Write the structure tokens for this entry.
Amino acid sequence: MDNPFDPVTHNRAAWDQLVAAGNEWTRPVSPELVAQARSGDRSIVLIGHQPVDPSWFPPTLTGVDVLCLAGGGGQQGPVLAAAGARVTAFDNSPAAATVGASRAGLIHLPARGSRAKGSRC
């Protein structure tokens, strides 16, 4: 087999295409949601459109270290950071990481990569 299927490359290309198409899960949260999180009203959505149960989080996120995996798109990281967490986002998609960097004042985007065998991380 000369060209084995590489799921990391396939995933990266698929998410880069979704970013280019403006898929809702690749767009950063609005400045209004960031402002709400700063005022203590944080809402995190992971799947679908229902917020995560607040009991999943400590009462305050101030100073809490959070790692957002596949978090380059800017959906959860900016809200967590605005609520006081120290957020590092990690994503396999360069396009998603670029979108997330639009909120770079809130989150740290170290590098792209994956946990696949032989990856950098």
The chain has one domain: 7-108. Confidence is low (pLDDT under 50) at residues 117-121. Residues 7-108 form one domain.
